[in-house]
Write a structure and sequence with these properties.
single chain, 18% helix, Rossmann fold, 8-stranded mixed β-sheet
Length: 640
């Protein structure tokens, strides 16, 4: 049985959850440099407009159009008296101010958009788009169990279980009565330490059912079914930020409200990790997208953000689609997570990427004054994690199970112990969020970029899957935790490039054994449209690991050498000359990504394949237009 949701307007957000389960050659670099990533002002580009393409299209209806729209207004610098006057004039209503993000949610007539754009302090205006959710053996097959057997070096002999780390979950709420959220040791003390509602519904429970499931994947305690469904960081604290309503939908402004709250309150609740199993179609470049900019602010503040890639990896006919990564998964500073299929086994030898998991490259764009579109074209996702048929906590009387009773898994008849099964990158993202909590418990001094690099470096490349599908591979929590523990904790901001990164003279053994299968780590990281590899990434300090630097942004490649202001990458790091995907292996029938092929605006990416404005189909046929005027998004088919 399958369900479809038809979206009839480009600016509406796709439902990103497969929510319902019905059942390179590399070149050595003598001195590699990379530009320190800064938050670029959107106005610094020779752009055609400061208005998003979907809003601009609507605004052209008529200069006298009184149709009311909700927009997100980004402001740079001090607001002038003239702009204040306009925002307080008749017909214009400021719905919400995000002080720490320098943004406002405004309701106004379409005719006012052009007037707003003329103010120099207005840097960008975009639609307040709809935001939607994406969506047993999990702790074994990911290596979380192996990681938990490792000792917390700072915890006097305690195991790694997320203790002391706060994970913020932006979703549809959490059923705090569920047993999964009590202390893992047997105490009934609740680990949901804060709950806030940003939907306006005045509740923080989970009538939809998505957020409870997601939160228990990241941090469920395993006190049900003798630990069969233990979450990744089973004793981490959880911060419940409800941004999706009772039907699983929200808006950019609700998400911005939660992210703005996080910037102010993260220290008070020891929040080091944020999970966002939600998203919207990627239209604006990450340089302009308001949610991406907010995510960037969080990472600069030292908070790791895990984001679901989306579930647009195939069309209604089951054919592969490329270029379907959703926002905020397009943001370089986020850890964007694709979904793998473990086929229900602990052994990882048969694992592969699910057919529905969104593939890169990112196809968000900005338009210059000449009308030319400039696509971001970043390699995403960064890593993959299990996301198919994941059993986790079921919130009481939730809408998903009401509409699809087969989601319920007969684990227990007690409401507070019920479990359900869901598919999607929504389920993969909290696996990574939980993994991050374990890494930060093992080494609290890790920066977001260090965490991201460690996860990519230790990942397991999956056979017959390319980088646009899996990033560097499937997350390997055992290896990541082992590596994180030996990273120095005395690395100040002015640590010189190339200084020893580890407390040991050599890198730990670069392979892991999980469920009797031994595999070699990827030993490389993604940098924008290419890869860096080699042991020096983990034995020497790289400036790209610092706060305020974006690991995957601002990189220029010239003849195999990274060039930019300031030395950011040390000698001994290997950098691929352009994008290499699977050494020229076939990624789909008739489609080949050539070794060393660069992705660029509108150019041929492979033999006979052109990336269109929206997505690329795997049969070499391009999709024309900015986006389909009517998109069919598969919510779930139940079988991958």
């Amino acid at each position: 049985m399958s369900t479809f949701l038809r979206l009839t307007k480009v600016h509406r957000l796709a439902t990103l959850a497969l929510l319902v389960v019905f059942s390179m050659s590399v070149m050595p670099v003598e001195r590699a440099h990379v530009q320190a990533a800064v938050e670029r002002s959107p106005g610094s580009r020779d752009r055609d407009s400061k208005v998003s393409s979907d809003l601009r299209g609507a605004g052209k209806v008529s200069l006298n159009d009184e149709t009311r729209v909700n927009v997100i207004l980004q402001i740079t610098g001090k607001v002038s008296g003239q702009l204040n006057g306009l925002l307080n004039s008749n017909g214009v209503r400021v719905r919400r101010t995000f002080r720490d993000l320098s943004m406002q949610a405004v309701e106004l007539p379409l005719r006012v958009v052009d007037e707003l754009e003329a103010f120099p302090e207005v840097s960008y205006i975009s639609t307040d788009r709809e935001m939607s959710s994406m969506g047993g053996h999990l702790s074994v097959t990911t290596g979380a169990d192996e990681a938990r057997r490792q000792i917390d070096p700072l915890g006097k002999g305690s195991a790694l279980d997320g203790t002391g780390i706060g994970i913020a979950v932006l979703d549809s709420g959490i059923d705090t009565n569920h047993v999964s959220f009590t202390k893992s040791s047997g105490s009934n003390r609740l680990r949901v330490v804060a709950s806030r509602d940003f939907t306006g519904e005045g509740r923080t429970d989970d009538p939809y059912g998505h957020g409870t499931h997601v939160a228990s994947i990241a941090a469920g305690n395993g006190r049900i079914a003798k630990g069969a469904y233990t979450g990744i960081a089973a004793n981490a604290n959880i911060i419940n930020l409800r941004v999706l309503d009772a039907r699983g939908t929200g808006s950019v402004s609700t998400v911005l409200g939660a992210l703005d709250w996080l910037l102010v309150n993260h220290a008070a609740y020891k929040i080091r990790v944020v999970n966002m199993s939600l998203g919207m179609p990627a239209i604006d470049s990450y340089r302009d997208d308001p949610v991406c900019l907010a995510v960037r602010r969080l990472t600069t503040a030292g908070i790791v953000v895990a984001v679901a890639a989306g579930n647009n990896g195939k069309d209604a006919a089951g054919q592969k689609i490329y270029g379907g990564i959703h926002s905020p998964g397009i943001e370089p500073s986020a850890i964007t997570v694709g979904a793998s299929n473990t086929f229900g086994t602990d052994n990882r030898a048969d694992d592969t990427i699910t057919s529905y998991s969104s593939r890169g490259p990112t196809r968000s764009y900005w338009t210059d004054a000449g009308g030319v579109k400039h696509y971001d074209n970043l390699i995403k996702p960064d890593v993959a994690a299990p996301g198919n048929k994941i059993i986790a906590a079921e919130s009481f009387n939730n809408l998903l199970v009401q509409q699809n009773p087969s989601l319920h898994v007969a684990v227990s008849p007690v409401p507070e112990r019920r479990m359900m099964s869901l598919n999607g990158t929504s389920m993969a993202s909290p696996v990574v969020a939980g993994a991050v909590a374990l890494l930060l418990q093992a080494n609290p001094r890790l920066t977001p970029n260090m965490v991201k690099a460690i996860l990519m470096y230790t990942a397991q490349p999956l056979a017959n899957c390319n980088a646009f599908e899996q990033g560097t591979g499937q997350v390997n929590i055992e290896g990541a935790a082992r590596l994180a523990k030996v990273v120095r904790t005395d690395l100040p901001a002015d640590t010189p490039l190339g200084a020893p990164l580890l407390t040991t003279p050599i890198i730990p053994t670069s392979f892991s054994t999980i469920s009797d299968e031994t595999f070699t780590w990827a030993q490389r990281i993604i940098i924008n449209q290419t890869f860096a590899s080699g042991p020096a990434l983990m034995t020497q300090y790289q400036k790209i690991y610092g706060l305020g630097v974006v690991l995957s942004d601002g990189v220029m490649i010239a003849d195999g050498v990274m060039v930019a202001d300031g030395a950011m990458i040390a000698d001994g790091v290997m950098v691929a000359d352009g994008v290499m995907v699977a050494d020229g292996a076939m990624i789909a029938d008739g489609v080949m990504i050539a070794d060393g092929a660069m992705i660029a605006d509108g150019v041929m990416v492979a033999d006979g394949v052109i990336l269109s404005d929206n997505r690329m189909r795997a049969n070499s046929a391009a999709l024309a237009g900015d986006a389909a005027s009517s998109m069919e998004i598969r919510i779930d088919a139940g079988v991958d």
